[in-house]
Amino acid sequence: MNWILANSKPCPKCKRPIEKNHGCMHMTCTPPCRFEFCWLCLGAWSEHGEVTGGYYACNRYETAKKEGTFDEEEKRREMAKLSVEKYTHYYERWATNQSSRQKALADLQQMQSVHLEKLSETQCQPESQLKFITEAWLQIIECRRVLKWTYAYGYYLPENEHAKRHFFEYLQGEAESGLERLHQCAEKELQVYLNAEEQLKDFNEFRSKLAGLTSVTRNFFENLVRALENGLSDVNSRGACSRMGSSKSLGGGSSRGRSGKGKGSTPRSSGSNRNIDDSGH
């Protein structure tokens, strides 16, 4: 109903909703009505012409818009349009993280069934020493689930709570950049070792990097969930943080702007009653 309200207008005569998807402002209602009207001001087309702006403009509409004399229907339509745009914004990002999570699940299965055995042979490492790769992918999957539902949280966060919204968007941005860093390391950087035909000397350095990113990301996401559970209580009514370095307390390290260094991770799927259920609760 919001979409219909935002993208259609009622015929001034028969009141049927009409969608305009192309063409000029001269509208003709379908039979049996056949009323001709201006799409912008909804006035009879017989009263329009070159003086009012021709086929692609309407001076009457522009004047009413500047004077703020929109009728209630037009105001409702504008509000509905904003509502649809807001929903689309948050839903698209929710769906993107959902599809990324599904792909990560498939990549984990491929890793466990095919790649780990080959990697164990080329890098001369027992598979028990490659658990850090599996742990990284499990963390990515969990983070995608949490990040997905932060967009539902953001959708329902009251618009008038500006300080909380800014704080939430900062935390969400840091979480997203940290997760992307971990995901890239586990996917792109690991590929070098999966494609190698012989042992590479810097594999242990890669192990330390990936394990470190996994730990940092886990820590940040656990604290992100805790902050959301508490209703972002670190932000008081005046828009300031209630204690020094609230973003640092979430990350467990130094805060360095959007880079998210020193921050990191999502709730473990086992044993935490803070987990957001995948069904949406």
From TrEMBL:
Region called Disordered, residue ranges: 239-281
Key words of the record: Metal-binding, Repeat, Transferase, Ubl conjugation pathway, Zinc, Zinc-finger
One GO BP annotation of this record: protein ubiquitination
Name of a matching Pfam family: IBR_1
RING-type domain mapped to chain residues: 1-62
Statement: the UniProt record of this protein carries the keyword Zinc: yes
PROSITE patterns in the cross-refs: TRIAD (PS51873)
An MF annotation (GO) of this entry: ubiquitin-protein transferase activity
Database matches in PANTHER family: RBR FAMILY RING FINGER AND IBR DOMAIN-CONTAINING
Family the entry assigns: Belongs to the RBR family. Ariadne subfamily.
Name under which the protein is recorded: RING-type domain-containing protein
